[in-house]
Amino acid sequence: MAAIGTAAPAGAKARWALIDILVVVYALVPVLWIVSLSFKTKETLTDGNFVPRSWTWQNYVDIFNTTEFIRALVNSIGIALIATVIAVVLGTMAAYAIARLEFPGKRALVGVSLLIAMFPQVSLVSPLFEMERGLGLFDTWPGLILPYITFALPLAIYTLSAFFREIPWELEKAAKMDGATPAQAFRRVIAPLAAPGVFTTAILVFIFCWNDFLFAISLTSTEASRTVPAALSFFTGSSQFEDPTGTVSAAAVVITVPIILFVLFFQRRIVAGLTSGAVKG
Amino acid sequence: MAEIVLDKVTKRYPDGALAVSDVDIEIADGEFLILVGPSGCGKSTTLNMIAGLEDITDGELRIDGQRVNERAPKDRDIAMVFQSYALYPHMSVRENMAFPLRLAKVDNQTVNQKVDEAARILDLTQHLDRKPANLSGGQRQRVAMGRAIVRDPKAFLMDEPLSNLDAKLRVQMRTSVSKLQKRLGTTTVYVTHDQTEAMTLGDRVVVMRGGHVQQIGSPQFLYEQPANLFVAGFIGSPSMNFLPATLENGGLSTPLGAFPLTDRIRLLVEGANAPREVIMGLRPEHFEDAALVDGQSTTFEATVDVLESMGSDKFAYFTVEGETATSAELEELAADAGSADLTDSGAQIVTRLSAASAAKQGTPLDVWFDADKVQLFDPADGRNLTYSG
Ligand SMILES: Nc1ncnc2c1ncn2[C@@H]1O[C@H](COP(=O)(O)OP(=O)(O)O)[C@@H](O)[C@H]1O
Ligand SMILES: [Mg+2]
């Protein structure tokens, strides 16, 4: 009996471990490949080795020597951060209302935001292009921030209202009974519990804005607002006959770093199941 | 400590639902008052109005003689224990219990001293640094109690605080709650839908039904002198037996046979302007094995359906042929007990016989009942025709 009891989970464990490893390898190989390319010299670029034969920082030095890339990086960071902050603040308010309040038109609001999320973005590119040119928003930061907020909001509202629904609102009543003002109840009880949801949403929205290529390439024309994904496509070598693979790879690695930092920074706050134990037994 | 008065308090929710209607209750200083009734009868709403978590639509709530209708919960100095406990999951047990004191800007040393003392009373000392998620149901319940007692509030409000515990722990905690309240002497309003809790805990019990107070009194008084059919059926376990009966020629004809009314009951019934058709109620303990009683005037014979021997007594179940008693109150009670369509043929009767009885399952038995303990109710409005309170 005991042997069977322990053998079965051990077998299952091994199977899961194998599956996990496969998934991780599948996801990481292309990333490592890019990293590897970014460290190869021009001569060994196409040798097909996974580990570079000769290492070089040259690609990184090159991209940081062009204003093109640095401008794009600044644009990317600025635009993504501003869009994230606005979308999360608006989304928090909307999600709070959806989770907590009964108001006329609630279903319509949820339905419309779902509709926006489902709308094929590519079909909006031409009208947006025309509109932004008419309004003078073309090739400006707001010209990208606005559509990002539009498409990030449904995402934010959805994620946040799912989180908010999990907060036992009796805690707010309990805080009031314990002598808290509404502001104290929010700050000391509700906000700490809502924080993981807000941070998770912020990360998702930030990644969405950071990775966007479609709007970035269509609604910008100069370094004034071109973000990194768009700028990458304009990379050339130092002469037009030179292969830019090395520098593109280096740039790709560089723009992945902020995402990783962003996630690591907020990870500590995203403690799943933080609300467990509030109620019942 | 405080005296709480509800004066014609009414609650109508924004959607139009009348949850509590014209409730008058005076809660004395230091009293342990129970609000009991089936689910949805307005107990929580009443409690939340006392707490200040729900607005009072009409009427006045006074604490120590002062109108507090418009006061925010934090200005009423009342602590509440929720059914779900509502512990703050991001705070340790110590922080949870200290929270009301911190909000009141009590200095650190006093906070620690009070929390330690509450933890000692509630046997939580070794758990002070744990998070609620890592506690058992009973421990969480005690933390919720601790959070309420640390700041010596004027009153405690408890909304079904034990209903999430398993049966054994519930009985245990019931005793602790009662001891704690006696020890602190703080005015307490306790909501439950469990009549056993109501009977065992409170100084006085308020029975509610559909937003209306049915009767207020000590547990013993409600048991012996229920004002109406609803209270009679709700209080007591197993509950009172009800049978249809007809008043004629100074006697009562019932499915158990016809018998004369005792003088005491006849006087009460005459004074109450009783209709001809009534409902007779008899508690299980007012039956006995006829073989064990002298002077058997009122007896009937029936077959024992089920016999449960509890050691100290025997519970014998009979089916009495004929009509069953019907009234709105009884239907509501049956629905609340979840036994709405168990009545297949005839009325079920539960009797409590002494352990010496020779009753056997499946065999007929002569059963005696105490005719002076019969209670009669008006089927139309449920009022107790033999009420002498
Ligand atoms: N927020 C609310 N809005 C509308 N009706 C409510 C609300 N809360 C409770 N009710 C209604 O008020 C009545 C009493 O509810 P409640 O006080 O919670 O009952 P109990 O605690 O006795 O089970 C019920 O009929 C319930 O449906
Ligand atoms: Mg309730």
From TrEMBL, chain A:
A Pfam family annotated for this chain is: BPD_transp_1
Q: Which residues form a coiled coil?
A: none
Give yes or no: UniProt keyword Signal: no
Query: Where can this protein be found?
Result: Cell membrane
Membrane topology, from the record: Multi-pass membrane protein
Please give the start and end residues of each transmembrane region.
Answer: 16-35, 72-96, 108-129, 141-164, 185-208, 248-266
Q: Domain of life of the organism in this record?
A: Bacteria
Which keywords does this Swiss-Prot/TrEMBL entry list? Answer: Cell membrane, Membrane, Transmembrane, Transmembrane helix, Transport
Q: Which residues form the ABC transmembrane type-1 domain?
A: 73-266
Q: Which family does it belong to?
A: Belongs to the binding-protein-dependent transport system permease family.
Q: Quote the protein name from its UniProt record.
A: Carbohydrate ABC transporter permease
Whose protein is this, by species? Actinokineospora xionganensis
TrEMBL record, chain B:
Give the ABC transporter domain ranges.
4-235
Keyword annotations for this protein, in alphabetical order, are: ATP-binding, Cell membrane, Membrane, Nucleotide-binding, Translocase, Transport
Against PROSITE patterns, the record matches this protein to: ABC_TRANSPORTER_1 (PS00211), ABC_TRANSPORTER_2 (PS50893)
* InterPro entries named in the record: AAA+_ATPase, ABC_transporter-like_ATP-bd, ABC_transporter-like_CS, ABC_transpr_MalK-like, ABC_transpr_MalK/UgpC-like, Mo/tungstate-bd_C_term_dom, NA-bd_OB-fold, OB_MalK-like
**Listed CDD domains:** ABC_MalK_N
Q: Name one GO molecular function term.
A: ATP binding
Pfam families linked: ABC_tran, OB_MalK
The family database entries (SUPFAM superfamilies) matched by this protein are listed as:
MOP-like, P-loop containing nucleoside triphosphate hydrolases
Q: Which NCBIfam families match?
A: PRK11650.1
Q: What is this protein called?
A: Sn-glycerol-3-phosphate ABC transporter ATP-binding protein UgpC
The organism named in the record is: Actinokineospora xionganensis
Q: Which gene encodes it?
A: ugpC
